[in-house]
């Protein structure tokens, strides 16, 4: 039968997820502006960089992302959910006399070191998202659905 071999690696469960929020309102000052977050709910493995406002892929696979915002009365809200430097989906709300909650979701296949982030896109109108220092109106979430095999 032979000698017993060296033990193998234990089963590894690959995980990656984050949920962050922002407590401060924001008016876009530049044509493109990364949305930076100030509140962490979950950040497994520290894959979300709070200083850059970007998620970095350490576990290749398919991910689910969701962004939620609160519009500002009489102001346009225009955001892109970005995969590296490519816009994937848009979250848009026209100026209105009422503020509303808006949401956008997408699933993306990611490779090692890919980045996913949210940017404001300023056009000719004032682009803004509402929040206050008490409640969290702005969230960005992502999690691994299926690791790459």
TrEMBL record:
Domain of life: Eukaryota
Annotated keywords: Secreted, Signal
Keyword GTP-binding assigned: no
Residue ranges the record marks as coiled coil: none
Ranges where the C1q domain occurs: 11-149
Keyword Signal belongs to the record: yes
GO cellular component: extracellular region
Subcellular location(s) per record: Secreted
InterPro entries cross-referenced by the UniProt entry: C1q_dom (IPR001073), Cerebellin_Synaptic_Org (IPR050822), Tumour_necrosis_fac-like_dom (IPR008983)
Name listed for the protein in its UniProt record: C1q domain-containing protein
Protein's organism: Cirrhinus mrigala
């Amino acid at each position: 039968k032979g000698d017993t071999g060296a033990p193998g690696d234990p089963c590894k469960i690959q995980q990656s997820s984050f949920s962050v929020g922002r407590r401060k309102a924001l008016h876009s000052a530049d044509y493109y502006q990364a949305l930076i977050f100030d509140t962490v709910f979950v950040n497994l493995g520290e894959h979300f960089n709070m200083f850059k406002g970007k998620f970095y892929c350490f576990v290749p696979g398919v991910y689910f992302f969701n962004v939620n915002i609160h519009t500002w009365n009489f102001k346009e809200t225009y955001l892109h959910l970005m995969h590296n430097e490519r816009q994937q989906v848009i979250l848009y709300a026209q100026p209105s006399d009422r503020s509303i909650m808006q949401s956008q979701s997408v699933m993306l296949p990611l490779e090692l070191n890919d980045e996913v982030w949210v940017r404001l896109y300023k056009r000719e109108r004032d682009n803004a998202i509402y929040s206050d220092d008490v409640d969290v109106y702005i969230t960005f979430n992502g999690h691994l659905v299926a690791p790459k095999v």
